[in-house]
Design brief:
Elements lengths: L14 H10 L4 E5 L3 H8 L23 E5 L7 H10 L5 E5 L1 H5 L20 E3 L6 H17 L26 E2 L7
Helix pairs in contact: 1-5, 2-5
């Protein structure tokens, strides 16, 4: 039987592209709202921004059902081990968005009680700047993460080494994650 005898249409493609498409369109965030940025993150789930069109309508309370952690707000030294435990319980592949200047750099709280950047605790994939960042900025960070998943730039974590004899044929992994640039041409 030849292809012309088939009654249905079909598509061909690489299984890797299909897996990337499925991962990109079914990212479930685990919320980690710690301060005022969490209010902006909550408004992202409202009808005005409607992230359900991106497959993200379900904010998971259990880390075992989530693959994206949105760290929104300042992280205290006391909360840092809890954040790491939640991250460790998430399923692979997992991604992190650092939302706001307090999560990214400690913000105006330059003291012993606040972690000066959540990237000291967990690897961050995308930074969303602002104090607090608007829901549009967080949406742009999510779309930036989707583009990284689609292009395969984050198939390996920064700092991981290849096994002996294996070539780097996968996506290129930058040493520092990209910051979200709103209204800036590329």
């Amino acid at each position: 039987m030849g292809l012309e005898d088939l009654q249905h249409n079909f598509m061909t493609g690489k299984i890797e592209d299909l897996v990337k498409w499925a991962r990109r369109n079914s990212v479930w965030p685990a919320t980690f709202g710690l301060a005022c940025c969490a209010i902006e993150m909550m408004s992202l789930g409202a009808a005005d921004f409607d992230i359900s069109r991106l497959g993200m309508e379900v904010f998971r309370a259990s880390p075992r059902q989530a693959d994206l952690m949105i760290v929104a707000g300042r992280v205290s030294q006391k909360m840092a081990p809890v954040l790491r435990q939640v991250y460790d319980q998430m399923m692979e592949p997992k991604w992190v968005i650092s939302m706001g200047v307090c999560a990214s750099t400690g913000g105006m709280f330059n003291n012993y009680a606040i972690v000066q950047g959540v990237d000291q605790i967990v690897p961050v994939d995308v930074y969303a700047p602002g104090c607090p960042p608007s829901p549009e900025t967080l949406l742009h960070a999510i779309l930036t993460l989707h583009e990284k998943i689609r292009t395969g730039e984050i198939t390996r974590r920064p700092g991981t080494t290849l096994p002996v004899g294996e070539q780097a044929t996968g996506g290129w992994v930058p040493t520092m994650p990209d910051a979200v640039r709103v209204a800036t041409p590329r």
